[in-house]
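With this grant's support, we have settled on a layout for protein records. One resulting record is reproduced below.
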Amino acid sequence: MITFAPGPSKVYDAVPQYLQDAYAQGILSANHRSAVFMNLYRDTEQLFREKLQVPADFTLLFTSSATESWEIISQSLVEQSSYHLYSGSFGKKWLEYAQYILPATQGQKLGANESIPVDQLQLGPDVDLIAVTQNETANASQVPMTVLKALAARYPEKMIAVDTTSSMGGIALDFSLADVWYASVQKCFGLPAGLGILLLSGKAKEKVARKGEKGRYNSLSFMLENAASYQTHYTPNVLGIYLLFRVLQGMDPIAQVDTRLRLRMETLEQTISQSAAFQLLVDNPATRSTTVAAISGEEQAIVAIKKAAEKEGMQLGGGYGPLKASSFRIANFPAITDAEFMRLVDFLKSY
């Protein structure tokens, strides 16, 4: 069964071999204070710079998941409030977590077809950080780099944090446009769940140093202090980090991955546009995700096509939250081969 669910999604076919290699190399019992681990951490961070074009002043940190970053960001980088720009369920959840920690936090919900109205935003000095859900997995909308660039230009004095849970590793991101980027490995990195990625710019690290926060387990001060010597403040998912290292080693440069996924998504979009029963949930090409497609239709039609796909050995992703009954989703992640993706497209054409 090939899964096209948007996370956890299909893992790379080479993962079983990577697991064997991890066992053979002693990675499964490597101490996180050892030279073996510190070298692994260093080399993984370097691969992020090489393959994903992450600037030299950024530091890579590891968490348990992308959602853990919600709490870390609010507690370590926000002094008064953050302002959240989002269009779907995951962006809303980030806002709600932040409000629990800092009640003054506010946000603006946009429609899946709406671009962020950067010129209309009126954010006062009480807003320390702007939070953007760049790729909303729930409704398959995304914020293009041009909008992030405009946001950074309008508010250069504010921190910007970006959720790229289902896009990092799949599309080219301009990391210079924001200060905090986070993701999880069970989407575009094609790995089992259980490891989060947090990238901090030089500007973000300077703010952490000025704030001088100490004594809290997940404080960025504590995390960065350990990262300076390629260690972690807790016993991490060493196997997950090793698997990420191996995936990055075999990964094409992100520009090539981006081109491949965009071409595949265009083919899928053309196929759905010819369907009488289904429509793309996001009409606006400017706000439509490259890595996740959400397709809407009548509830009975959704149930029927998912069952038909399963008979053909393919699992379609379900709708999420309020869109559960009226949509299904398709992951366009790098671990899914071109042949597998085209098999799905052919099924949709003939359905």
Residues 2-8+253-350 form a domain with the Aspartate Aminotransferase, domain 1 fold (CATH 3.90.1150.10). The two ends are 18 Å apart (CA to CA). The longest strand covers residues 127-133. The chain has eleven helices and 15 strands.
